[in-house]
Design a protein that fits this description.
This protein is mainly α. Helix content is about 45%, strand content about 10%.
Length: about 150
C-alpha cells in the first residue's frame, strides 16, 4: 500500500509540474530587452525635449547616454525655426554622453548651447560628431577661455 501511495504521489507531482511548466511558458512569453536609445531615433526637437525632461536639479549626474553616431544631415532645414526659438535659452538640461564614454561629467548643459551646436552641424554640413560627451556650446567656450588663461 505504501508503494502505491508513493507511486501515485510521484506521478501526480510529475503531471502537475509538467502542466505548470507548460502554462508558465505559454502565459509568459520572453521579455523584450531594453533597446538603447540612438540619435537616429531622434530629431533635434525630440533630442532637446528628452534632455530637458531627464534633467533633475537635485541630481549631480545629469547626462543622457545615447548609443551610436549622429547620422549625416541629421539637422534638417525644417528644424531651423525651432532652433532659432531656443538659441538664447539659458534653461538647464542634461548633457550628452556616448555609451562608450568612460568619463562622467557632473556639469549641466544649456538648451541654447545645443541649438548652437546643431546650427554648426547644419552650417558645415559635415558628419555630426559629438565625441564621447558634450555639455553645450557655452560650456565649451568657457572651458577654452580658462585654458588660455592658464
Amino acid at each position: 500500500m505504501k508503494k502505491a501511495i508513493l507511486l501515485l504521489i510521484i506521478v501526480l507531482s510529475v503531471l502537475v509540474g509538467g502542466y505548470l511548466f507548460y502554462a508558465f511558458k505559454i502565459n509568459n512569453p520572453e521579455k523584450e530587452y531594453h533597446k538603447d536609445l540612438s540619435p537616429k531615433d531622434l530629431n533635434p526637437e525630440s533630442f532637446i525635449t528628452l534632455f530637458k525632461e531627464k534633467y533633475n536639479k537635485k541630481s549631480q549626474l545629469n547626462s543622457v547616454t545615447l548609443a551610436g553616431e549622429f547620422p549625416e544631415n541629421w539637422v534638417k532645414q525644417k528644424d531651423i525655426p525651432y532652433l532659432i526659438s531656443i538659441m538664447n535659452s539659458k534653461e538647464k538640461c542634461c548633457g550628452y554622453m556616448n555609451i562608450f564614454s568612460s568619463n562622467i561629467s557632473k556639469e549641466d548643459a544649456e538648451v541654447g548651447g545645443f541649438a548652437l551646436i546643431f546650427f554648426r552641424f547644419l552650417y558645415f554640413q559635415n558628419k555630426n560628431k559629438f565625441g564621447f560627451k558634450q555639455l553645450s556650446e557655452n560650456k565649451q567656450r568657457i572651458n577654452q577661455k580658462n585654458r588660455k588663461l592658464v
